[in-house]
Amino acid sequence: MGTGVMIGAGIFALTGQVAEFAGPYFPAAFFLAAVISAFSAYTYIKMSNKYPSAGGIAMILQKAYGQSAMTGACALLMAFSMVINESLVARTFGTYTLQLFDVGDDTIWVPILALGLILVAFLINLAGNQYIGAVSKITAVLKVGGILLFAGAGLWASGLSFEAVASSGNRDYSAAGFLAGVALAILAYKGFTTITNSGDEVKNPQRNVGRAIMISLGLCLLVYMAVAFAVGSSLGLEELVASKDYALAEAARPTLGQYGVYFTVGIAIIATASGLLASIYAVSRMLAMLTEMNLIPHSHFGMPGRIQKHTLVYTVVAASLLALFFDLSRIASLGAIFYLVMDIAIHWGVFRHLRKDVGARSWVLLTAIALDTLVLGAFLILKAQADPLIIITAVAGIILIFVFEIFYLGRRRGEKGVQAAQS
């Protein structure tokens, strides 16, 4: 399950995006992103070993910060990061699907197809969990096997000549640009956090949750490196950046021909559709949990049924709006910023309050914080120069989330105080 969640739409959406920042060194960016994710995973593994549960990130934050605005705000950052990823996945679905037709890149059909996929995923989620589980198992095998087949065929057809390096010329790529590429590449690995939600469902979770996370990260690294070298062997760097929204389909064209494009687009459709289906379920479940923990408010808006059905609607509406009005680059940038801020908060919380309780080594936690901060800082600097609006949007969003949580929890404490005084 962990491998299926991690390997999927991210590699289709992010290969070209990472290459735009890291240049011909984009395979190294994926490798470093795996190293940083491994340091991050240490915190989640230690917490899951000590407190195996279905709570995942929300549980870790509550253990570290208690019933506080920090817990609620960081949990919401993760939820919004996942919603942002859903819109990224949905637009990737639209972009790859249109490679089957003779239409331009800048077309209204991308958001229309993205919205259609979100609505289909919503309806399947309404049908029940058993459908989601069955679809996820089948598609996990298809997409992982298909991506490996694409990578192997691409490397074989290209003769292992790394065209991206040969075509890069004398252009210099800065260390900051490389680190910004790493920040985006981390999004392709962050799915390991969903494995922590399975602590109450697996045998011997104190051992197996951590093993599942590390095995999934290792498998993802192998697959992503194979894909990166296959794409870099097929396309020159300028071609790769020009086709960044559908890089794998474009890479299949010169080496594998039109049938290779059909195959790659088919795998992309499976990966994006299944990834969106699972993500919508996970986010709605997380929001329902935060509601039950009294960390966020809830309104039925006249809708019948359980809380998770309502949070499912909220999730779909938010993802649809993002998919309609933001392009892939901006969606990926927002997701990276929100995720890295939340990740730093988790490491700091465990270091500050729980490291002795869970037996975590301080130097590993501090290294995870330093690595996250380094790539986030480089990413913010580059985006501030190239697209300041997305930085303003991200910072404003983070501030609003924290202010909202402070106000909401303060009001709840005030209401409890009034009720206690009256009784």
From TrEMBL:
Keyword flag Cell cycle: no
Compartment annotation: Cell membrane
N-terminal signal peptide = none
Keywords tagged on the record: Cell membrane, Membrane, Transmembrane, Transmembrane helix
Name the principal localization, coarsely classed.
membrane
List all membrane-crossing ranges: 25-45, 65-84, 108-128, 140-161, 173-192, 212-231, 259-283, 311-328, 334-351, 363-382, 388-409
How does the protein's chain sit in the membrane according to the entry? Multi-pass membrane protein
Record-linked Pfam families:
AA_permease_2
Q: What is this protein called?
A: APC family permease
